[in-house]
Specification:
Elements lengths: L1 E5 L12 H14 L3 E4 L2 E2 L9 H17 L5 E4 L2 E3 L4 H6 L11 E5 L6 H13 L3 E5 L5 H5 L5 H5 L3 E5 H5 L4 H12 L5 E3 L14 H10 L2 H16 L22
Parallel strand pairs: 1-2, 2-4, 3-5, 5-6, 6-7, 7-8, 8-9
C-alpha cells in the first residue's frame, strides 16, 4: 500500500517530536503492509510555523538514513499538506512549498468551515497553474457533511478526494464514519491515506482495516485502487481511476421513522 498523507517527519510540525518516533511509525507502517509513505508536513499554518523546504529536506534525509541503518525498507517521498491560501500557486512556483516528489500533484487542506466557492476558486487556481489537486480529508469539511453533493462539480473538473483511513473504520467517531461511508459508496473518494501523526497523538499509520472496509462496502478491486493504484498514479503523474460520482438523493421525512 501507498500512504499519501502522513506526518512522519520528526521535529517539524505536530508529527513525532523525535527521530525515534518517526522510526516507530515506519515499523508500524511496514507491519501494516505500507511500503511507501509520503511525508506531508503542514506547510506554513497554525500547525507548522517552522516549515521550510530546507528543513523538510533535512528531516527527510535524517529519516532515510535512520531507515537504512535500521534495515527498514520503507520508501519515503516528500510532499506538503498545503493549507488553503491565495498565494499557493505562487509559493509552489517559487519552490517555497512542495508537491508530491517530482509530480505535479498537490495535497490541499481546507478549514472545516470553508465554503464551496472558496474550494472551487483555490482548486481551479492550482489547476490553471498546472497542478493536480488532491483534497485532504473532505469528510471533515462541514458543508460536505451537510451535503456531500457539493463535491460533485469539483470531481467533474478533475479534483480528487483523499479519505482518512481512521474515519472510515470509526476510530474518529460515528459521524465521520457515516459520512466516510457515504462518500465512498457514491464514488467520491479516490485515495485512502492514514494522516498518521505518531504515537504521541495515538494516530499511527494503519490502512489495512480501512482497506478491508472498502472491500466489504464495494469490492476488493476498488480497495486496491484506493490504497495502491491511484496513489501510485498520482506520484507518477499518470491517469487516475475516477469514476463519475453518484448524486446523493436526500431522504424524505418518512424515511427517518
Amino acid at each position: 500500500m501507498i500512504d499519501l498523507h502522513s506526518h512522519i517527519l520528526h521535529d517539524l510540525d505536530d508529527g513525532p517530536p523525535t527521530l525515534a518516533g518517526s522510526l516507530e511509525m515506519a515499523r508500524t507502517a511496514l507491519a501494516d503492509g505500507i511500503t511507501t509513505m509520503a511525508a506531508t508536513p503542514h506547510g506554513r499554518s497554525v500547525f507548522s510555523r517552522r516549515y521550510s523546504v530546507e528543513l523538510l529536506q533535512t528531516r527527510l534525509a535524517e529519516l532515510r538514513a535512520a531507515l537504512a541503518a535500521a534495515d527498514l525498507p520503507l520508501e519515503v517521498v516528500p510532499g506538503t499538506e498545503l493549507f488553503c491560501a491565495a498565494d499557493l500557486p505562487a509559493q509552489l512556483k517559487a519552490g517555497a512549498l512542495l508537491p508530491y516528489g517530482t509530480s505535479r500533484t498537490v495535497l490541499v487542506e481546507f478549514p472545516g468551515d470553508v465554503q464551496p466557492a472558496a474550494i472551487e476558486q483555490m482548486a481551479f487556481a492550482l489547476q490553471i497553474a498546472g497542478y493536480r489537486v488532491l483534497i485532504a480529508h473532505p469528510e471533515r469539511i462541514k458543508v460536505v457533511q451537510r451535503d456531500p453533493n457539493v463535491l460533485i462539480p469539483l470531481i467533474e473538473r478533475g479534483v480528487l478526494m483523499q479519505l482518512t483511513a481512521d474515519a472510515l473504520t470509526g476510530e474518529q467517531g460515528t459521524n465521520l464514519r457515516q459520512i466516510a461511508e457515504t462518500l465512498l459508496s457514491h464514488q467520491m473518494i479516490h485515495v485512502i491515506a492514514s494522516d498518521a501523526h505518531g504515537a504521541h497523538l495515538q494516530r499511527m499509520p494503519f490502512m489495512t482495516p480501512a482497506r478491508r472496509r472498502v472491500a466489504e462496502i464495494l469490492d476488493e478491486a476498488i480497495a486496491e485502487t484506493l490504497v495502491h493504484t491511484n496513489p501510485a498514479a498520482l506520484l507518477s503523474d499518470a491517469p487516475v481511476d475516477a469514476p463519475a460520482p453518484k448524486r446523493i438523493t436526500p431522504r424524505r421525512w418518512w424515511q427517518y421513522k
